[in-house]
Amino acid sequence: MTLLTSTNNSIPASSNSNRATGGLVVHAAWTRRSRSEAKKRPNRKSWKQRTDMFMRPFLLNVFFSKRFIHAKVMQRGTIKVISVASTNAKDLRTSLPSLVHENACRKIGALIAQRSMEADVFAMSYEPRKGERIEEALVLVTSGALSILLEHGM
Questions:
Q1: In 18-110, where do the E strands start and end?
Q2: Cα 51-56-57 angle, rounded to 5 deg
Q3: How many CB atoms are located within 10 Å of the residue 113 CB?
Q4: Structural domain includes residue 36
Q5: CB under 8 Å to 134, separation ≥6 — which residues?
Q6: Domain for residue 33, yes or no?
Q7: Residue 40, phi then psi, degrees to nearest 5
Q8: What InterPro entries does the record point to (predicted)?
């Protein structure tokens, strides 16, 4: 075995060392692919990623601000809004004493459930955003929607 020297240290040469770089061993990044290979085989989505929007087609989106509660049901495949309810609506602003407390949460849940049933929504799911906590207000909105759906046998 011979020694090939570089500027800083000596590295033993082996039969698979890269002599074009002066004896320094260059490690290839085996996880990367060339551009032509990436074009031939693009990254694939998993089975769950491909079928999730069809298994759970309707998504409940609830947003709480300091003054209002906004809720909407969206269809995942087409990103169309199916039903919307908000305490900022004119009829709710005048009828509710507080726009963010328990009664408002229950009312928004009931409105979302009724409007979703009118649009023939048979099931909906809720995914919390990254870092979002499940709070009491969110539980009240979903329980209000659930109670209306159970009354109508859905």
A1: 58-64, 69-75, 80-86
A2: 95
A3: 27
A4: no
A5: 128
A6: no
A7: -70, -40
A8: Ribosomal_uL18_bac/plant/anim, Ribosomal_uS11_sf
Task: Report the CATH number that the domain containing residue 84 is assigned in CATH.
Answer: 3.30.420.100
CB 142 within 8 A of CB 111: no
Whether residue 29 is contained in a domain is answered as no
CA distance 9 to 71: 65
Q: What average pLDDT does the structure give for the chain?
A: 77
Beta bridge partners of 11: 4
Number of H helices, E strands in the chain: 5, 6
Asked if 34 and 66 count as a contact pair (C-beta separation under 8 A), the reply is: no
Domain with 147, as residue range(s), is: 52-151
| pTM of the full structure | 0.62
Judge whether 108 lies within some domain. yes
pLDDT digits (tens, 9 = 90+) for 97-154: 988 888 898 889 999 989 998 998 878 888 888 887 778 888 888 888 877 777 776 5
Q: Where are the beta strands (DSSP E) in 13-141?
A: 58-64, 69-75, 80-86, 125-126
Residue 82 structure tokens: 């199916």
Number of domains in the chain: 1
> Angle CA(46)–CA(50)–CA(56) in degrees, nearest 5?
125
- Quick one: which of 67, 63, 52 has its CA closest to 125? 52
